[in-house]
Amino acid sequence: MGFLHMVAISHPKMARQVLQVQDNIFSNRPAIIVISYLTYDRADMAFAYYGPFWRHMRKLNVMKLFSRKRTESWESIRDEGFIRILQEFSKLFGAFNIADFIPWLGWVDPQGLNTRLEKARSALDKFIDTIIEDHIEKKKWNNGGFDDGDTDMVDDLHIFYTEEAKTNELEDLQNSIKLTRDNIKAIIMEVIFGGTETVASAIEWALAELLRNPKEMKRVQQVTEVVGLERNVEESDFDKLTDKNSWEDPDSFRPSRFLREGVPDFKGNNFEFIPFGSGRRSCPGMQLGLYALDMAVAHLLHCFTWELPDGMKPSELDMSDIFGLTAPRATRLYAVPKKRQVCPLF
Ligand code: HEM
């Protein structure tokens, strides 16, 4: 496309070659202009160049940030201003930019992307700078250390903070990792974005597919009945709710296919279905994401029955997606809940 060479891989055998057999060659992720700018020039982990810095970041992130123990609540995520910033990030990540394909056409910028990018990143800067400053203050109050019982993601990252710009990658390799303020900002953005938009989009798709397939919806709701309607679903119930299914008719949404013995799984070992990718750059937030997704969908289906509004037929539901990091739905899903559970909801 334009000046970029692109190859689409659409067969599991080829996907295995790229993501597993030869993944040392294919482990660098390309970054379009929007992504480079919004990640502070690839100062994050997801778009970091494949090399020692990425390796350290990944280790640090997996150990410190993607653990299921991390249940902190982020007041800022509920802040309307912050939500608007994330929504603009999401739109920008999905915007088509001709300059990615024909660099010398960058000056044309018919969508005003360059101005939007600057605005979006400076809005995020203000937000995250305040969070970082608050943490530095807190550290001062605690005589230079963090109170063990009360550390969060920013505290964990701050331990590696350095005010000097990194001189070279070799330094990362020799010493333990050092993070600049841009690294910290980019990682915070990534974890918040990665942890919200991906899961929200998956929940919306799951409900839309179920509403379009009332038989499957019924089946899933019957499964949730093992819990009984007198209490909420808990994580320990998940094993009892698992459906193990077949692989025929791949274009139909049939979650019950996963109930069958020996069916390909989705965790990156079977290349027929890789929603979390596979290989060394696969999703480190999978467990966290699945937990949030399973919990939300289980609660929504266990507590309510769902109908489409205004007598809309399931076949009339718009199932198109739009381009973006999380392949979001083209139109928002509207559905009407009716309480099903007999115990109090909260
Ligand atoms: C339903 C939820 C999610 C889905 C479907 C999803 C999907 C993906 C996919 C497809 C990739 C690229 C894999 C590859 O290139 O092979 C990825 C990478 C990544 N995801 Fe997720 N993800 C989800 C949730 C999360 C969460 C909750 C977090 C963090 C809190 C997260 C953080 C990341 C990061 C940092 C990477 C880049 C890893 C690297 O380049 O080394 N994801 N994710």
Please characterize this protein's 3D structure.
Pfam families: p450. Heme binds at residue 283. Residues 163-190 form a coiled coil. Strands 1-2 form a two-stranded antiparallel ribbon. By secondary structure, the protein is mostly helical. The model has no long low-confidence stretch (mean pLDDT 83). Helices cover 43% and strands 2% of the residues. The longest helix has 32 residues, at 181-212. The radius of gyration is 22 Å and the shape is globular. Bound molecules: protoporphyrin IX containing FE. Protoporphyrin IX containing FE is lined by residues 45-46, 58, 66, 190-191, 194-195, 198-199, 202, 275-279, 281-285, 288-289, 293.
* Fraction in helix: 40-55%
Rough shape?
A: globular
Enumerate the strands of the largest sheet in spatial order, edge to edge or round the barrel.
Answer: 1-2
Number of helices: 11
Low-confidence parts, pLDDT < 50 over ≥5 residues?
none
Biggest sheet architecture: 2 strands, antiparallel
Order of helices and strands: HHHHHHHHHHHEE
Q: Count of DSSP E strands? A: 2
Mean pLDDT: 83
Structural class, judged by helices and strands?
Answer: mainly alpha
Give Rg in angstroms. 22 Å
End-to-end CA span: 52 Å
DSSP strand content: under 5%
Integer count of domains: 2
Bound molecules: protoporphyrin IX containing FE
